[in-house]
Amino acid sequence: MNDRGENGAMEEKPVNLIYLLGAGRSGTTMLATILNNHPNIHTVGEMHQFLDYLLEDKDCSCGENLSLCNFWAPVLNDIDLSLLKNKANVALSNSLEKHHNIPLLLLGKPLNTTYSAMTDMVFKAIHTKVSKPWLLDSSKYISRYLLLRKNKNINLKGIYLVRDVRGVVYSFGKNVQTPKNPLSAIFYYSLVNIWAQLVSLLDRKVIKIRYEDFVNEPELTIQKIEKHLFGKTENISDLNDKTFDIPHIIAGNRLRSQKQLVIKKDVKWKEGISRSKQILYYIAAFPLMAINKYKP
User: Fold this and answer.
1) Quick check: 109 pLDDT over 90?
2) What DSSP designation does 211 have?
3) Looking at the domain assignment, is residue 1 inside a domain?
4) How many domains does the chain divide into?
5) pTM attached to this predicted model
6) Taking a C-beta distance cutoff of 8 angstroms, is the pair 99, 143 a contact?
7) Rounded distance, CA 169 to CA 187, Å?
């Protein structure tokens, strides 16, 4: 990670980081797991929750507490826990990543130095423990992406994953992991995706992918992502026939507890939501649905 500059001094290379943007229940955990199978990408999970997980020593996806995990324990040995476990710093990080900061960050709000120092410390420690050149953070938060984009020690590229609002509403309607009623889910979906859509238009380092395209044609979608990230593509075998191991990730949806997953089309909403409600939900999120070429 070090190079010599013009004066002969050692200079640190930026950490290569891929960031997934989008709303929850849009398939980010599945996409992040499949991308972890790529020879250049190591997925680490929803890192916006890392400080909270560290503070409470929560469990990795492997089932072990972070302090006992084969992957995370060595990482923790290389970082200043007094800085990262400071409750004021944890609160600062959580506050900076809230949605209401998005307009200010887009208008040029400077990067907080404490936040930057914590981020640098964590990603550099992780990077030394993996052999792959790119880390993948599946946090989804738009504000976090904008904060990371301001960090000169991070070489950042983004993937914006969007899904049909009706699939998101149906998923949130299940009585598991932060359920939402339809009105709340549509409001959340619209808020996040409006900002993500704007960022993807303004930032050439962000590529937009539809969840439906990914599950229907995973090989073509992965090649499209490869082209965006690395400027080239490789031949990919049939991904629908593969089983993918869940890596050592922070947070993530309930799929993380299954240890393995396969690419699966989730279209249960077409039967689980009445036709009249499907149209109503479509109209409620109409601009986004039309922009992303979803049909009523």
Assistant:
1) yes
2) H
3) no
4) 1
5) 0.94
6) yes
7) 10
